[in-house]
Sequence to fold (330 residues):
Amino acid sequence: MTSPRLEDRFLRRINYLRVSVTDRCNLRCTYCMPAGGVAPLGHGEVLSYEEILRVARVALSLGIEKIRITGGEPLVRRGILGFLERVAALPGLKDLSLTTNGILLKEMAGALRRAGLRRVNVSLDTLRPEVFERVARRPGLERVLAGIDAARDAGLSPLKINVVAMRGVNDDEVLDFAEFARARDCEVRFIEFMPARRDAWDSGSLLPAAEILSVLSSRYALVPTEAEGISGPCRTYLLPGGGRVGVISPMSDHFCGTCNRLRLTAEGKLRSCLFSDRQVDLRRILRSSAEDDRALEACIREAVHHKPERHAASDPSAEQCGLSMSRVGG
Ligand code: SAM
Ligand code: SF4
Fold:
């Protein structure tokens, strides 16, 4: 039997769903949230685990193969371990991953592995405590570092560290992060700073991937990995002696041509592009048709159909993402 395929108008195969399980977070990163946080969704506004599982089941039956759990901070939502266990057991799922800020990882890494999670991405933008506190508006570097070690000890692999690269903030830490990757034999991925919060973004903060690669090449002979080009939007390179570095360049080099994603927000909106406000309200469907999945299937297909050819994040006049990344699920 051939597996189902979900394809958009531009013949892109859509097989990856990112699910934000909460809009809440224990950090307040400047690029993601205002200092006071965003007004939290009410209890009934957030999809229940049962509802998310139903969407996931239907999406898998249509051709989704990979699911990433994100947030907000996914590890702050109560019951996350039992939920992950149920997602991991869904038929048709080929890859389950989670993105976390690492604050709670030290305590939870072993249990996450036992729940069926195989790998995690940890967000960490600096190796300096004072810069961490400035960017995250909370202390926590030591906890995140301990969480990364705990994830490795628990066998969560491959371990990937996401660094939002910002000129004037952490641009002088590129080589330190490469040494971090070599020492821990993990992958550090530099992500270009995106205008998710217009008021916290100026183009001067953008550190283009080409510049990051040129700094890395000044010290190391970078060897492109075989997976380059086929492992999603990240261009990855082996470092001499162990570890890998990668760059993700949503701003300087669109990778929309190969985008395979859908995003489900914490409140049940399905989005086909991080930078577009166009969304389909699955919560309404979930709550009005408890038994019949056909309306849900139609909505998922509609979101796929309207997936834009490319985003326009650097065009101020274009359709924009009006939500914080914490709610959309970065
Ligand atoms: N709280 C978790 C975390 O920080 O890993 C998961 C949610 S967070 C929204 C997911 C990812 O989005 C993080 O790696 C974060 O650094 C990234 N992100 C948020 N705002 C961003 C921005 N303006 N530009 C680039 N990446 C951003
Ligand atoms: Fe929280 Fe992640 Fe947003 Fe930082 S990037 S405020 S950790 S959701």
